[in-house]
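Lecture notes, structural biology module. Today: joint structure prediction for complexes of two components.
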Amino acid sequence: MDWLDWLLLVARIVLVFFGLLISVLLYIWFERKVIADLQTRKGPMRAGPRGILVTLADGIKLFFKEGIVPTNADRRVYLLAPVLAMFPGFLAFSTIPFGTGTTLFGRKIPFQLVDLDIGILWVLAMTSIAVYGVVLAGWASGSNYPLLGAVRSTAQMISYEVAMGLSLVAVLMYSGHLSFSEIVAAQDRVWNVVPMFPAFVVYLICGIAETNRPPFDLAEAETELVAGFHTEYSGITFAMFFLGEYVSTVTVAAIGVTLFLGGWRGPAPDFLPALWPFLWFLLKVTLVIYLFVLIRGTLPRVRYDRLMAFGWKVLIPFGLVWVLITGAIVVLPAELELDRGTVLTWAAIALGATLLLSFLPIGRSQRREEVPR
Amino acid sequence: MGPHGSLVSVVAVGLSDYLPILLMAVLAIVFAVASLGASALLRPRRPNRPKLSAYESGNDPVRLPGGERFSVKFYVVAMLFIIFDIETIFLFPWAVTFRQLGLFGLIEMAIFIALVFVAYVYIWKKGGLDWSATPPELMDDEDSDEPAAAGEVSLGAR
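The predicted structure, tokenised, for the full assembly:
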């Protein structure tokens, strides 16, 4: 590597970093606008054209607000937690290909910071690290609501991580690669969302739960826990939790697009070949984010016991069975010389049976709980 | 790396994959620390005792009864998470190679998942996945609206 390589590498990293920051600014504005539309309000209107700079204004305001470290807090951990909550999203995003790449100064510039052989495992590792920010923030605040919120949200995040891992295993089996660029390359004819639709649904649900987004934002159920694990945070430290949450959400959407929706794939005209894959990627990520916002705007918050029951009693058995079904669909036709139709029929029967079995007990307990007082 | 690449250079090449990630982490941490520091210099600092006390809706802060203890359910979830997460990790190497392993690998993994399912059903029947404070076998029809309320309490101190 000579100096030009280094310069290009650093430029790419800085661009991705600030690109993510800007995407968060736009995402928060977009979310507030869409939710305002759903509630027939106008939403932010003051800062910038149609209020597009509202997040920037909020950020600047928070930057100049007094930061409070409560008397009971463990000062060092209390200040470490927001940093820990912020950076896993950025690191997870580093492995995602957001375009085919281009050539600049005679050097190939891939639109991806790094193509790790272990892409999926890396993402799982980063989502695990995100838990530390939450649990340390709650513990270090030395206050009751943050502690309860942190413990709750930790249990929620680790529960849904298992189901997320299972949905990723299914994708992995189907495409046979751990690296994201290979997974995108394997989707040249059909996007994974078609054969892997159940895994896609499981992934989206787990993604929302992992990032503590509504309707799974139990960590900050205002009516019960004030603001959950970041109750005691104010000013810039609060802004960092906010930033971390939204960067993680953008990353979850981007990973979903890469694994299931063909990544940067899309029809491209000959004009500016490097630009179109990037635009397709942006468009798909925006659509997934739009779905997240719609879910947030329409669904009420889930009750905690039902959230955990759904994760453990529906998503995990379903994920396990889906892994086996994927295995059967991929392996059996070749091995036993069955035709694909027979295997698919049996797979559909097995899937239906699992769904039925996993919903039955929950239906029973709901009937028991909903006796009028 | 030439054909005679030593172990050291193999490791170095392998680690150089992570260089952009390392730089990204450095940038993120520098950004975070710089904004913390800059904000600390620029923002007002007017502490007083009520402001610095733990938030408790305006009342004097009270520690949770029993110190910082919370429902045992959370410990159960943590243990179950470790079991099932390790199981998922076992699935990953198989998922990468299962096309080569073929039918053998599929049956092998079916047996593994079936064994885990036995444990899973046992946990479920024991009530390890339930969040109501009362075990299902102790619940009768009179307090049929109890689980929700009891669940809320169990999130607090026990």
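Point to remember: The first helix of chain A runs from residue 3 to 38.
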